[in-house]
Amino acid sequence: AAAGSTVELGCSAQGDPAPRVQWHKERGDLPWDRHEVDREHTLRLYAVMPTDAGTYVCTAQSQLGTAAATARLRV
């Protein structure tokens, strides 16, 4: 991604009951005031910087278990 751009990372999780979905960065924190997660569990990172580069993990958890997927961001 180009520095200063907005990045969207999608995460699809379905089930009954609906799983609880969370995003985190593998080494570090999500940018405190430059991210949001919408109803479809898409993580948006605004005005990305080189320090935002890394691996992001989407975790879906329900009574039936846990599933995770990763995305690597390069800035």
Automatic annotation (TrEMBL):
PROSITE patterns: IG_LIKE (PS50835). Residues 1-21 are annotated as: Disordered. One of its GO terms (molecular function) is cell-cell adhesion mediator activity. Its main location: membrane. It is found in: Cell membrane. It comes from the Eukaryota. Residues 1-75 form the Ig-like domain. GO terms for cellular component: axon; plasma membrane. InterPro entries: Ig-like_dom, Ig-like_dom_sf, Ig-like_fold, Ig_I-set, Ig_sub2. Keywords: Cell membrane, Disulfide bond, Glycoprotein, Immunoglobulin domain, Membrane, Repeat. GO terms for biological process: axon guidance; dendrite self-avoidance; homophilic cell adhesion via plasma membrane adhesion molecules. PANTHER family: BASIGIN RELATED, ROUNDABOUT HOMOLOG 4. This is ROBO2 protein. The gene is Robo2_4.
